[in-house]
Amino acid sequence: MDSEFNAYIDGFNLYKGSLATRPYLKWLDLRSWCENQIPGFSLRSVFYFTSRVKRRFDSDKAPERQHLYLRALEKSGVEIAYGRTRKSSKWHRLTSAERVEVIHPELKSNLGLTQFSINSSFRRSQPDLPKAQVTFYEEKGTDVNLASYLLRDAYKNKFSASLIVSGDADLVTPIRFAHEAGQHIKVLIPNSGQRISALRSVCDEILVIDPEQLFLHQLPYFYKSPSGAVIQRPSSWR
Question: CATH fold of 2-86+138-232, please?
Answer without folding.
Answer: Rossmann fold (3.40.50)
